[in-house]
Amino acid sequence: MIRWSQQCIPTLKESPQDAEIPSHQLMLRAGLIRKLAGGLYTFLPMGLRALRNVERVVREEMDRAGALEILMPALHPRDIWDRTGRYDVLSDVMFKIKDRQQRELVLGPTHEEIVTDLVAREISSYRQLPKNFYQIQTKFRDEIRPRFGLMRAKEFIMKDAYSFDVSSEVADVSYQAMYDAYVRIFSRCGLRTKIVEADTGAMGGQSSHEFMVLADSGEDGIVECESCSYAANLERAETGDMPPLVFDDADKTLEVVDTPNARTIAEVAAFFDTTPAQMVKTLVYIADDQPVVVLLPGDRDVNEIKLARVLGASELNMADDAQVGKITGAPTGFAGPVGLKNVRLIADRKLAGCCGAITGANEVDKHLIHFDLARDVGDVELADLSFAREGDPCPRCGETLHEKRGIEVGHVFKLGTKYSEKLGALYLDESGKQHPAVMGCYGIGVTRTLQAIIEQRHDEHGIIWPASVAPYPVEILVISAKHEPSVALAEKLAIELEAIGIQVLIDDRDERPGFKFKDADLLGLPVRISVGEKSLARGVVEVKSRATGEMTEHAPEAVLEVVQALVEEAV
Ligand SMILES: Nc1ncnc2c1ncn2[C@@H]1O[C@H](COP(=O)(O)OP(=O)(O)O)[C@@H](O)[C@H]1O
Ligand SMILES: [Mg+2]
Ligand SMILES: [Zn+2]
Predict the structure, then answer these.
(1) How far, in Å, from the CA of 445 to the mean position of ligand 1?
(2) Cα 549 to ligand 1 centroid, rounded to whole Å
């Protein structure tokens, strides 16, 4: 048993100013973590206990799925990152350092290169496959905007796993095994998660799913179908077919109209007394040094991830005013697709068949009306370039998509042979032929998961831990630390509970009862036993479930069984 008076649980009455979301505020207020600097946190004893519990759940399920735990260095020679080209791709995010001999090193943001190099050295035959290696380790990322406490930190703990198989068919089996393990991990952590299709980003590879904890504070936008199982990150979400955007009689001819002082979509729409949907938005990009003009419905936002993928571009930037001037012959704000020459033109698929629209005339203070895409621009390249949004049709079944926010706690990827080819992770098949191993990689943000649990499980009084993760499953609150019989009974109950494997925190502090009850709700251990003079006079102690708020009274002899049942329920 541990006594609060001897612990370090520095609870706070007020939320620290820079904590914006409930889970971050509660981690600080309940005395779980303290900030060293932006994106860098110390775990205090209660926070560390909860963190170790999340790690234990992750470890048990990874072991159960047959993955092998290893521990790789956090410090990597630069050279291995150059071999896959990712030193450049991840350059912004990597912390780079030098040793005393001026050799360049990086602090690992992830470990595909390192594990693949290991496999290249250790595995040579199909008989040694499949293998799945995992570790629970600190990662370092120089995030542009570290925020929300542990949610997006510069240093955080990740569980990362990497599978190696002889073919993509069996690699799919490894992928499914990790997917299933993740479902169990998050459910054991008391989390409700939504699994969504995800973009593969800098990782490369063919297929990927993210495990999202739905929360208003989530950094990721997702859409889900109200009717079928389709759900996807907004970075990649598609939409079903929509009727063409037809705004007026198709036979009206293109007309130039003076639009003084109307430059933005909103200003031009207001000028014509219409909605932005009738506008054709014209954006100029520079993709790997080549100009590209992108057309979208005026009320839609370009999805640059989709755009970069369609263009096959590794670098994509909005053109600056000078470049826009050169390409369109007009200042930014008046660009339109009509009459553009020597530039790649690409339109969002939703513009197919669009007519009666309004767009820029490539002249200061002028716009075109009665614009018809096919008639006025000809055969234009069409692609899915915009973000899906609330109310759009589902790409699978046509029913309505709904937008939600999510916290990405886990991510699984099918990687293929990108890394094994570049780093020589090859194996010999039965006939002695050499092939690259087929890989998958699987991450869980362990520290982020811990905070996501709090984000999803709290009320206005504090945290509501599941027993699996709680720093302790039970708190015994001694109402008056000066009342000897209460203290003695509390200690006796604690010893009995610990004998059946239930760890206990005793609040033995010489403080006002109200203060201690508030702290108990704030720290949020699943079961609270209160021992006090008044109830003892009636021969009972009080037991409260943090999750349901239900309070019952029991004779001390009966408490053990009641508490054990409550702890088992507290998932
Ligand atoms: N800066 C961070 N702070 C805390 N956790 C992070 C951070 N970046 C990533 N994670 C966690 O690690 C997991 C695996 O990372 P990865 O998918 O490579 O990250 P990202 O999607 O941000 O590129 C994520 O699902 C997330 O839970
Ligand atoms: Mg990710
Ligand atoms: Zn659907």
Answers:
(1) 6
(2) 34
The verdict on pTM exceeding 0.85 is yes
> Of ligand 1's atoms, which has the minimum distance to the CA of residue 152?
3
DSSP codes joined into one string, 7-74: S-----SSPPTT--SHHHHHHHHTTSEEEEETTEEEEPHHHHHHHHHHHHHHHHHHHHTT-EE----S
Query: Is 300 a pocket residue for ligand 1 (Cβ < 6 Å)?
Result: no
Is the minimum distance from the CB of 130 to ligand 1 under 6 angstroms?
Answer: no
End-to-end CA distance of the chain: 22
Average pLDDT per 10 consecutive residues for the chain, totaling 571 residues? 96 92 98 97 98 98 98 98 96 97 98 98 98 98 96 98 97 97 98 93 78 95 96 94 86 91 92 95 95 96 94 92 92 91 94 94 94 93 96 96 98 96 98 98 98 97 98 98 97 97 97 97 98 96 97 97 94 83
Q: Which CATH number fits domain 472-569: 1.25.40.10, 3.30.565.10, 3.40.50.800, 3.40.50.720?
A: 3.40.50.800
Measured over the CA atoms of residue 206, residue 185, residue 137 and residue 119, the dihedral's sign is: negative
